[in-house]
Amino acid sequence: MEPDTTKNIAYAVMGLTLLVMIWFITQRARENRSSMLESSAPKVAGEDEMGGGARNPQQFEEPDEDALEEMAKLLGEDEESDDEA
User: Fold this and answer.
1) Secondary structure of residue 83 in the 3-state scheme
2) Can you point out the beta strands (E) in 1-85?
């Protein structure tokens, strides 16, 4: 083969490789951009699911003395609040 033919084939292969790399990078950038826009979009009420809950929900079944006193104070059933009023 002539050196010019070999050089032209090499340039063609490199050019084709460059085009494939550019296509791959633009596709990847589009996917990343769309996923970023989707993840940072404002949440609409009811569409976003919040996970979680109480780690130990049994602890709320029976209130302790502090909680009862605070509830009585908030409801105005505390003896001290009657004296002050």
Assistant:
1) helix
2) none
